[in-house]
Amino acid sequence: MHAVPRPEPTTLPDTAPAPNPGAALWLDLYRRLLAGEERKPLLQSLCAGLAPLLGLSRVHLSRKLASGVIAIEACSQEDALWLELQRLPERWDGTVAGDGPAARALRNQGPALMVTSDEGFLPWRRTAEAEGLRAAAAWPLLAAGETWLLQLYSERGNGFADDERLQLIDQQLAELRRFLDDDARLREQALLAAALRMAGNAGFITDLNGDIVWSNPAFSRLTGYAAEEVRGKNARILKSGRQGTRYYRELWSTIRAGQVWSGETVDHDRDGQRYVIHQTISPFGRGERISHYLSLHDDISSQKAAQQLHELESGTDPRSGLNTRASFDQALEEACAGQRPFGLALISLRRFSEAAQAMGREMEDLIVGEMSQRVRNGLPSPHRACLSGTGEFLLLLDSDSSAGHEALLNTLRLALIEPYPYVGEDIALDYRQVLLRGPQEGRDGEALLRQLDRRMADEPVARAQRQITAR
C-alpha cells in the first residue's frame, strides 16, 4: 500500500490584519450615526475615545476652511489650549499665528511632529506647557471631499517616538477617513430622501436591474401604488406599451454610461389608466461606481391632452408643414378600422439630424425644414406624413399595391439623400426605412407602430454614397 502523504502544517500569512483595539469605539459611533445622531456629538465622542486608546492627553479633530484657517471641529476636552487655539487658530501657510504641526502637515502632505519648545509653536507654548504638554503632532487626511487634520498632544517630549503608537495612529486614521466618508454619504442620502419625500414630483429609486427600492408619497399619488407594494418590483410595472424597442434601448444605454436621460413617457397607473410624464433618470452611486438610478416624474397629462386637441383642430404642424402627430394617429386608427389596404412606413435620418442638432437650434430647424419640404414634395395627396422624432418621419400610404409603396419610398429616399444646403462641413448621411402593410387582423394603430419600431431597431444603416455638403 502506498503511504498517504501528511498535509503540510497550515500557517497564517504574515499580512493577516491585526485586530483593531478601537473596534468597540467605532462600532458605537456607527450605531449612533445610523440612528440619526448629529455630527458634532459624534466627533466629540470620537476624540474623547481616541485619547485613552492612543495613550495621549489631548486629541483635536480639525478641518481646513476655504479661508485657510484650521478650525477645530471637536476635541477630547475643552481646556485652556483648546480656547487658545480658538482665539489664535493656525493657518495652512503658517502665517499670522505661528507655524504649528497642523500647518506643516498640510504643506508637507504628511504627518508633522514637534516639541512645544519649537519656534513654530511659540504662540501656544505657554498655554500648552501650563497644561503639562510637551509634544504636538498632526496627520492630514482627505475625507468627504474636505481636508481634515487629526491633532495629537503628549505630556512627553518623545511621545511620538514609539513605533507601536505610530502604527496604532495609522490604523485609527484609516478608520477615521472611512467614518467621515460614510457620515457625509449617509447625511447626503438622508437629505436627498427628505427632499424627495416632500417633493411635489413623483420620484423613485431603483437598483441596477430596475427593481424599485424606494419611492416617495407623490409617486403613490400619481400611480396608485403604495410604497410597500412596489418595493422589490421592477419599474416595468408602469410600462404602458406605448414606447418601442429603440426608446428603451437608448434609455438604458444612456444611464448605464453614467449619463442623465430625460424624455416624455406614457405610463399607466395601478388601474391601467395612462398618463404622460416628463421623466428624468439620473445614475448615482459611490465614487465612480453606479449603484442606483433616481427617476423623477413630472405629470404633463393635462398639457399633452390640450396639445393633442389643438393638433387635431389645426391638422398641420407649423414646424414641418406636415400632419400633426395627433391627426396622423387619428388617420391611422381610421385606416386600421377600414378594409382598404394601406402602407405604414418609418423613414429615419436620425444620426444625420442629431449631428445637425449639435450645431445649434437654428441649424437644426433649417435641416428639419429642408427634410420636411422634400417629404411634402415627394408625397402627393391622399398620402399622409408627420415628423415623429429627431430626423424621423411616419408615412401613411394610401395605395393598393406593395409595388406602389416601394416606388414611392424609393422616390423619397433619392430626394432625402440629395446634398443639403446650410451645412458648412461634411456630415455622413445615414438612411433607414421600414414598411408594413395594413390592415392586419387584430392590430390597431398602436400595435402597428410598435411593430414598425421593432423592425427599425434591427434595420441596418444604409449609408449614402455622398456626404452632406454646403452648396
Automatic annotation (TrEMBL):
Q: What is this protein called?
A: PAS domain S-box protein
Q: Which InterPro entries match?
A: Biofilm_reg_signaling (IPR052155), GAF (IPR003018), GAF-like_dom_sf (IPR029016), GGDEF_dom (IPR000160), Nucleotide_cyclase (IPR029787), PAS (IPR000014), PAS-like_dom_sf (IPR035965), PAS_fold (IPR013767)
> What is this organism's lineage?
Bacteria, Pseudomonadati, Pseudomonadota, Gammaproteobacteria, Nevskiales
Which Pfam family is one of those matched by this entry? Answer: GAF
Single GO BP term: regulation of DNA-templated transcription
User: Which SMART domains has this protein been placed in?
Assistant: GGDEF, PAS
Q: Where is the PAS domain?
A: 188-234
